[in-house]
Amino acid sequence: GVSGGEEGARWGPSLMPGGPKEAYVELESMLTAIAATSDSGPTVTHVGPGGSGHYVKMIHNGIEYGDMQLIAETYDIMRNVLDMSAPEIGEVFERWNEGKLRSFLVEITAKVLKYIDPLSDKPLVDVIADQAAQKGTGRWTSQNSYELGTPIPIIDAAVTARSLSSFKDARAEASQLLKGPDPADAEVQDREQTIAALEDALYVAKVASYAQGMNLLRTASVTYDWNLNLSELARIWKAGCIIRADLLDPIMKAYNDDPDLSNLMLSPYFVDDVNAGMPALRSVLGAAISFGIPAPAMSAAVNYFDTIRQIALPANLIQGLRDFFGAHTYQRIDREGTFHTEWMEVYPDAEVIPE
Description:
Layout: E1 2-3, H1 5-11, E2 14-15, H2 21-34, E3 37-38, E4 41-42, H3 52-80, H4 86-96, H5 104-114, H6 137-148, H7 153-165, H8 168-177, H9 191-223, H10 230-236, H11 248-257, H12 271-291, H13 296-308, H14 315-326, H15 343-346
Antiparallel strand pairs: 1-2, 3-4
Helix pairs in contact: 3-6, 3-7, 3-9, 4-5, 6-7, 7-13, 9-12, 9-13, 10-11
């Protein structure tokens, strides 16, 4: 796996080689010379056996999809809730890049938003068609997450959002027929308070997105017997690749301290920040909903957070329903074993259609 785009090709990418260890040893000096370098060393390591290197690159791209969608939603809220121009939003992202959000994607977001198109004398982003393309790695990440039973809802939302953006004609038709909230009824937000909330919201949503990607890597490592070192993977993403960010330092430390960490958001490096940032995420998501602005990745971040912190979920009702129509059985919380209720004896007049 190779990441870094055009600049990585010129100045050094992040390299994710998989395959036999002895082959890596033979190539290590060459790969180290090619790779970028961060303050944690060359951005290359022996990922693991087989196709693990390509797989890790695929998950890198899935995280990238989620990151870009969250950034786009943040821009959309500033544009349509706060009525800010693209260059004004670019100034905000430029300022954010000096703090906890410092990353390659936030840096270039500022540059893209501030750039004036010489052909139209307008911000270039305002004349770019709103149809995002994709080469498939995000979709493959989503497909594999379903196969491994490891949810990545922020990345799924990003893939879906790109697909929906391609239906321009259908969206144009729907815009004339389907009605959203009346802007006159939406509460005008305080600009500076909302911008501050957006910074916290974007940060905590990014942590949740990375948590989902790292969990998928952990599951894949066990399933495919790859023995992936998640701390080392975070290290080689610190330079040369598209998702390079200051956020990777505490991620690297979190998995170095606890390689079996069940969820990144539970790490002592993140748990306080996540708890502190969630009210901001709920606040900006509420503003988006009240103005009728789609924010699927932010919504997925909130729902993911709220789901994993619940000690009890309504899946008990789902199991009851499955047992009713398909005799799929269920477990109980008050005794061991597998159980089935003879529902037809309880409700003899019920009509049941097999699953």
